[in-house]
Amino acid sequence: MLQQMRNNAKWIWIVIVVAFVGGFLLFQTSGLAGRSAVTTSTAVGKVNGTEISYIAWQNTTATLVQQQETRLGRGMTLDERAQLETQAFNDLVSDVLLNQEFEKRGIRVTDDEIISAAKTSPPPDLVNSPELQTDGQFDPSKYARFLASPTARQQGLLARLEQFYRTELPKQKLYNQVAGDIFVPDARLWLTWRDAHDSATVSSVAFKPMSTKEIKDAVTEADMQKYYDAHTKDFDRPARASISIVQINRKPTAADTAATLKKILAIRAELEKGAKFEDVAKRESEDTVSGKDGGKLPMSAKGTYVTAFEDAAYKLKVGELSAPVLTPYGYHIIRVDTHKGDSISMHHILKFIKQDDSAATKSDTRADTLAKLAASAVEPAKFDSAAKKLGLLVSRINLEEGSPAVYLNHVVPSAAAWAFGGAKVGESSDLFDDEQGYYLVRLDSIHTGGVKPFADLKAELRELAAHQKSLDELVPKAKAFSAAAAASTLEGAAKAQGMTVEKVGPFARSSQVPELGMLSEAVGAAFSPTLPIGAVSAPIKTDAGVFVIRVDKRTSSDSAKWMAQKPTQRDQLTRALREQRIRMYLDGVKKSAKIDDRRKELQNAQRKATS
User: Fold this and answer.
1) What is the overall mean pLDDT for the chain?
2) Which of 266, 304, 439, 469 has its CA 20 to 30 A from that of 30?
């Protein structure tokens, strides 16, 4: 079997080599080589001295982009591509670190192990393949027949499986070494169950902080420095930028919606007259993924699609055509093919709601003019001049690195990635577009991220330190109130001081309780054995305020229910703890590694070389 894998592998490698050579030639002719600091031997990063080549990073990114574009049926925006570039780099770093760990621990994989895994533990994509299922469940006998079939060899499946297990089996061995000894005893299972199922109901009086002018004025430089030193990590901020933006509208009108509905009704009428659904879908559907396959959608469980689409689909009988279904994507016609429990397979035809040809032509013409006047301009004045000439409103928005640009409650594609991708202050972008409009942005300012210095945070630190002071000043008042309530009643003490008693609960130990400051010390106190039912607590200081509570009722969880579900709970918690330990182990390996990330350095070098 392994020999068959390797015989087929040569075709896989031929494809890889062709792709690499093609990428190399593109790289050589694109201006990246020779004119800048990037060559075929350039390292985009190093991990404990092991280089990650620029080519490997670009190829990995290209693979991720292709997979995502195939899944979504559209091209990637710059924002989305930037995320995939980061994912590709992190994946390559992880691969290097794992290989280094395999080497340290002497982890190897034999041919027999690969063959056994291929026969008994198929990858998730094969387990979920409808062709290998019976009644919605993976069928091992179908898989065994497929594995032995000429089709599997012709499709290169065996070579793919060998590559998969040569990558995955060492990971499994490493993870077993790291977390294979985890066992969750009954005592811990019971505590976990109890935290989620014990409940308490309390009466509460809240003392809420007020940062008055007097308190703020009393905050000293030393108070602010003390707070800053204790919470330095809280001030690690992302890079910030401000951009100017103009938009040429492409939003469809009510008339466009009506026209699209008319088109989809005409398509439905054609289907009712006997036209083959698949042929009409290939011709008419604007879903680029399913349309080329005759509108076919894979077998899927409930919750896969948007609510309006699913609600309509699950009401249909097999073979029945839906009325036009409106979703955020446009109008659909749906035909259900099979129902199996909560799963369903179907075909659909999609028509986008978009501008009519006349309006679209006008928008396109204005966008072309805007691009000619100011796109990629390095002179800031060209942006303003173009906006004035076309009568476009110039707006200014602020950005944070890692978050998209949002304009009029709408995400502007690619703008944030462009702004933080090495653009110079005053420079204008290329023209970006989506279904709602064309956009041009200019970078007006940019500030690097990191821990902000004390001097830049004084106003914020004064507010935060004042909040702590106001909490501290509430504690003596709450102590006096608690003593009065203990001597009489919580309600009597509250009435005497003009305060309100709030009934809270029932809630569990692990609950977020807004009335008590979410998951706070006050929530924990409600379950403390040192606070008997009916007793008034001492003041409980939280970030949200100071609370005095009385526990009115506690209900213990049902041990019989716990025993009935204990095996399932143990399995779930064991897997969760195993995954947690593996993540912590891998995080530790990464933190202790020497990782040199040269991506921004290379991007800046390329930009200078082409400017």
Assistant:
1) 87
2) 439
